[in-house]
Amino acid sequence: MSPEDKKSISTGKGDKGLTSLLDGTRTEKGSTRPETYGTLDEASAFIGLARSKSRLPLVRKTLLEVQNRIYLINSELACPPESKHLLKRPLTEQDVEWITAASREIEGLVDLPPKFVIYGEMESSAVLDVARAVVRRAERVLARLETTDEVGNSSIKAFINRLSDLLFVLARHEEREAGVDLRHPE
Q1: Could you tell me which CATH number the domain at 31-108+118-178 has?
Q2: For the chain, what are the domain ranges?
Q3: Of 46, 138, 177, 180, which is the most exposed, with the fewest CB atoms less than 10 Å away?
Q4: What is the pTM of this model?
């Protein structure tokens, strides 16, 4: 196969500020829908970085499961309501149950104090805290999207809300397993 035969990642179709949704519909890149799934993509990149930094199999496995579900969410968010038949599968209540159970499992391994935590005691937990902050931003953008456009799947909102909790307890688990004491505001 010659270099000319290979499909390029760059199409040039977005040069005018438009992007394609899953069904081919064109929309403004700066609109709330692309901002929502773009913010979740950013969170997934930080989650991947955290997964690469962690030495704990439970953390790595859990984060990979989360990333797979973020792809489902992003596909759904990039799909207009009338084109949902194009989805591999929607996010379901079972996915929300999974993340809730995962968060509770990790929380059971960590003794969380009733105080705020200062982030940055170690690299792997700090990256999880950054991912959590990006997920919180995605949650706010999703709330904005819901005021102007149909999302339709309440499991997405619940999953993203639980995700920030899961990332917080995973960060504290990383610190606990490394023997690092939590730091609190003075």
Answers
A1: 1.20.1200.10
A2: 31-108+118-178
A3: 180
A4: 0.87
- For 36, the enclosing helix (H) or strand (E) is helix 32-53
| pLDDT one-digit tens code per residue, 97-152 | 999 999 999 999 998 878 898 899 999 999 999 999 999 999 999 999 988 877 77
In this structure, is the dihedral angle defined by the CA atoms of residues 76, 153, 160 and 90, taken in order, positive or negative? negative
Q: Is the pLDDT of residue 13 over 70?
A: no
Residue 54 C-alpha from the chain's centroid: 17
Assess contact for 57 and 174: CB atoms under 8 A: no
> Looking at residue 87, what is its pLDDT?
83
- Mean local confidence (pLDDT), 146-166: 90
In the 8-state DSSP scheme, what is residue 87?
S
Place of tokens 């705020």: 116
> Which helix (DSSP H) or strand (DSSP E) does residue 26 occupy?
strand 26-28
DSSP string across 51-63: HHH---HHHHHHH
Q: How many whole angstroms separate alpha carbon 3 and alpha carbon 8?
A: 9
Long-range CB contact pairs, 72-75, < 8 A, 24+: 73/37, 73/40, 73/156, 73/159, 73/160, 74/37, 74/40, 74/41, 75/22
Angle at 185 between CA 112 and CA 117, to 5 degrees: 30
How does DSSP assign 112-151, residue by residue?
A: --SS---S-SSHHHHHHHHHHHHHHHHHHHHHHHHHHS--
